[in-house]
Amino acid sequence: MNPQAVFTAGQQGLYLLLMVSAPVLVVVLVVGLVVSIFQAATQINESTLSFVPKIIAAVATLAIMGPWMMSTLVDYLRNTLLAIPGAVG
Q: What pTM was computed for the model?
């Protein structure tokens, strides 16, 4: 296996990691921003007010996007495992 193939495999893995994690991170970021604006406007400084909506948003996003995330990860793992004989031999 040449160095170019190793770097390509690593690049594909990092890209997949970014694609799979992006929906949850974006939703939690937006919810956190909305809650922070609400807290600043109302001057309520309750720590659970920022934590609970983020958890609910993350769980809802995982419930909606979970099947796509799993199929993407399974396809990547399948392709990686099937490429092992070609890389070794």
A: 0.81
